[in-house]
Design brief:
The protein is an all-alpha fold. The chain is built from 21 helices and two strands.
């Protein structure tokens, strides 16, 4: 055997084939973003709306490419060769967990794009920049659930977050928009810095960035590195807690949602949360199971604080205050984040199958919350103050929109006929009970009752008789809903109704392990 042969046998194979089908959803989204950016240079101003439709088609195509991957058995960018410690370690894995979250992200971005087609034109935002930033953020958000090493995870997190800063502040000359973008930027940069510090500590203690290898090496950390490893785990979790808007890292949410364009507020409430929770699931359940006695109790306390403060703040919103509708949805999203944290905390006490409850709840929440923002976008066309009182008598003006919003709010409250909301809450509640977290289940039950008040108060307002002055002005103010907004409302309502009729379509993910041993 020659020296060259021996050297080749001992060196990892750095040249490898790429599974293009596995990465197609991310690549298509990013490629369409680049196409839109270049096309913006040549498309006349009067035809800029075409860029929006190119983006809608691109997101639809990216979502469709998930179908050939439904087996969940593909991976790429793997460590190969006899010189590696773990030949099975891959940086990108298209398993069932990744595919479900990618569907949530891309479908949510598609609904956001439909809402944005008219919003970009009406607010006179720069179309090329808007669509490029939205597609770039969606590409990063789609990459994150498939990431299986800490470096790719952080890169995907930032690709999803950085364009969102600009999207929030894209309404030039708007003080609220600029302030919201600044708060969002500062909090997110702080979160990233803390996460990077934590990741560097974990790498120093384990010598690896791949999640599967980190998990194995944390089981047997040398005594002198144990404190460093624990600090790394804690700091990494703190960084992701910022992204999920968990209390006490939630302070940026209300002002950011109020200052952002309404479609982007909806995008952040769903896709932004999906990104944070996905990263939290990957680092805790896959990479840090050896330190479950640290992150389990911490996440349980965060869940209780988050749902309690979020619901209490939503309860205090005055119906006549400007932007009260958006603020209520913002604080409601903080409360919903607390419910989403419960199964992740429960996974530290029982088994990893509890994560299915978070996925099921996230899918339900994505459909109905985006639907609520779609109706808000419709109402804002004639009543731009975004007050809850503006929805009084909506049924008389837009019956289908009022019925849809009522259904979305009942799903968020967990009341019939919003069956999917009820069953999603039951799965989360059961996850807490099965894990022995009875106190957390009690806190959740109390918060569900608190949330009923403000959801039902808003729902009842939709069907009340408009006030005398508003009733006289209603026929003149009534406008035809733009069909992209109508399509977004119909799509989200259809998904919510189908899932309420057949909740097993989502809840089956809670029954089986998304992370097979």
């Amino acid at each position: 055997m020659t020296a060259l042969t021996v050297l080749a046998a001992e060196t990892p194979d750095l040249v490898q084939s790429v599974d293009w089908l596995a990465i197609a959803p991310v690549v298509i989204t990013a490629a369409v973003g680049l196409v839109v950016l270049v096309a913006d240079l040549f498309v006349p101003e009067k035809h800029k709306q075409a860029l929006g439709w190119i983006s809608v088609v691109g997101l639809a195509a990216a979502t469709a490419t998930l179908l050939p991957l439904r087996a969940g058995d593909r991976a790429t960018f793997c460590l190969t060769g006899p010189g590696t410690a773990d030949p099975a370690a891959c940086s990108y894995t298209a398993d069932h967990f990744a595919l479900v979250v990618q569907f949530l992200v891309l479908a949510g971005a598609l609904v956001t794009a439909l809402l944005s087609v008219t919003a970009v034109r009406d607010a006179r935002m720069p179309a090329g920049e808007y669509w490029f930033l939205l597609l770039s953020s969606a590409a990063g958000a789609a990459l994150l659930p498939a990431s299986r090493d800490l470096a790719t995870l952080i890169v995907a997190l930032e690709v999803a977050s950085l364009p969102a800063f600009a999207l929030v502040g894209l309404r030039r000359g708007d003080r609220l928009s600029s302030e919201a973008a600044l708060k969002f930027f500062l909090s997110s940069v702080t979160a990233t810095a803390v996460s990077l510090l934590g990741v560097s500590f974990v790498y120093a203690a384990t010598g690896s960035l791949h999640l599967s290898q980190v998990a194995g090496r944390l089981e047997d950390v040398p005594g002198q590195l144990d404190t460093l490893a624990m600090a790394g785990v804690a700091l990494t979790l703190v960084g992701f807690a910022f992204k999920t808007a968990a209390v006490p890292f939630h302070f940026w949410v209300p002002d950011t949602y109020v200052g952002a364009p309404l479609p982007i507020a909806g995008y952040l409430s769903v896709i932004g949360k999906a990104v944070g929770f996905t990263g939290l699931v990957l680092v805790t359940v896959i990479a840090f199971p050896a330190y479950s006695e640290i992150w389990g109790p911490a996440l349980a306390v965060l869940a209780a604080l988050t749902m309690t403060l979020g619901n209490a703040a939503a309860l205090r919103q005055s119906a006549d205050r400007p932007n009260s509708a958006v603020r209520l949805l913002a604080w409601s999203s903080v409360g919903q984040a607390g419910y989403l944290l419960v199964p992740i905390a429960a996974a530290a006490y029982s088994d990893r199958d509890q994560i299915g409850s978070t996925v099921a709840y996230a899918l339900m929440y994505a459909a109905v919350n985006l639907g609520a923002f779609a109706v808000a976008a419709l109402v804002a066309r004639t009543k731009p103050l975004h007050r809850i009182s503006d929805y009084r008598g909506l049924y008389a003006e837009h019956p289908l929109a009022a019925l849809s919003l009522a259904f979305f709010l009942l799903c968020l409250a967990g009341l019939p006929p919003g069956i999917i909301g009820l069953f999603a809450k039951i799965t989360v509640f059961r996850a807490a009970v099965d894990a022995g977290l009875g106190w957390l289940a009690v806190v959740m039950a109390v918060n569900v009752v608190i949330a009923l008040y403000y959801y039902l108060r808003w729902t009842a307002l939709l069907f009340r008789t408009p006030e005398e002055g508003e009733q006289e002005a209603a026929p003149a103010a009534r406008t035809r809903a733009p069909w992209p907004v109508t399509t977004a409302i119909v799509l989200t309502a259809a998904v919510a109704v189908v899932l309420s009729g057949a909740p097993q379509l989502v809840l089956r993910f809670a029954a089986g392990s998304l992370f097979p041993q």
